[in-house]
Amino acid sequence: MKITAVSEDCFLIQVSEQIDLALTDKIAFLVDQIETQLGDALVDIIPSYTTILVHYNLLNASSLVVEKLLENIVLLPSPKAVLNSERKVIELPVYYDCSVGWDLPALSEKTGLSIEQIIQLHSATTYRVCAIGFAPGFAFLAQVPAAINIARHATPRAIVPAGSVAIADAQTAVYPENSPGGWQIIGNCPVKLFDPNSNPISPFAVGDSVKFKPISLDQFLKLGGQVSDEK
After folding, report:
1. For residue 17, what are the contacts with CB-CB under 8 A and spacing of at least 6?
2. How far apart are CA 15 and CA 145, in angstroms?
3. Was domain 2-85 assigned CATH 3.90.180.10?
4. Where does CATH 3.30.1360.40 sit in the chain?
5. What is the mean pLDDT of residues 111-139?
6. DSSP assignment, residue 62?
């Protein structure tokens, strides 16, 4: 692993040069250790598939102290069995329907699968939170079954509704807020996944598992879901 100063108050830890889901447990363990050992000196930590960006407060710790601490942390063996048992399993309700899953018909046509088969494949898989980014509360989840892998749109939509469940290649995610986006939308989750006034502000942490549970239109509406006419 390589540790590089990318600014006067940020270090980048390069865990690997290649994406590998087997790294998720290691990265989750390192994030836990950094949060614990840096304490009040930590401003923010951003894990991805292969790296961890550590932003620290120079008023609380010098760059030399932080670098030495990170060097010691990356040498620690990660207790994989213990780590896995401590991670959350998050179940999210999803209304899979063309009224909110705007790309379901096209995905069905491209894969040769029925919409019901696509829903079954997507909801039967347990996904891992591999990274958090793009937008606050946006968790990159892997790995989507190969049969329903589909590339992003060539031209992103100007607005993707909050709660949209989408696929991009081997990844899936839920858009936590209204935002531009180019992923293929297959449903909507009515649960709020980002709230800056809550603690934690998002339910996701790298290493957690996520399951999607299909729900009916009535359940979707009762949970606060909305159907939009815009596509």
Report:
1. 50
2. 26
3. no
4. 2-85
5. 92
6. -
Residue owning tokens 């018909």: 105
Q: Does the domain at residues 88-222 carry the CATH identifier 2.40.100.10?
A: yes
Q: From CA 231, how far away is CA 157, in angstroms rounded?
A: 8
| pTM to 2 decimal places | 0.80
The residues near 112 (Cβ < 8 Å, ≥ 6 apart) are none
CA distance 175 to 166: 8
Element (H, E) at 68: helix 63-74
Matching residue, tokens 């209304």: 95
Strands (E), 23-95: 42-47, 51-56, 89-94
pLDDT at 79 over 90: no
Cα–Cα dist 89/14, whole Å: 27
Q: In this predicted structure, which of 123-132, 192-201, 212-221 has the lowest mean pLDDT?
A: 192-201
Residue 60 vs residues 7, 31, 56, 63: alpha-carbon distances, Å: 16, 19, 8, 10
Question: What is the 8-class DSSP label of residue 147?
Answer: G
Residue 203, both tokens:
């339910």
Residue intervals of the chain classified under CATH 2.40.100.10 are: 88-222
d(CA 160, CA 177): 8
Q: Which helix (H) or strand (E) holds 124?
A: helix 115-124
Separation of alpha carbons 93 and 95, rounded Å: 7
- Residues 170/147, Cβ–Cβ less than 8 Å: no
Question: Which range, of 2-16, 23-37, 62-76, 84-98, averages the lowest pLDDT?
Answer: 84-98
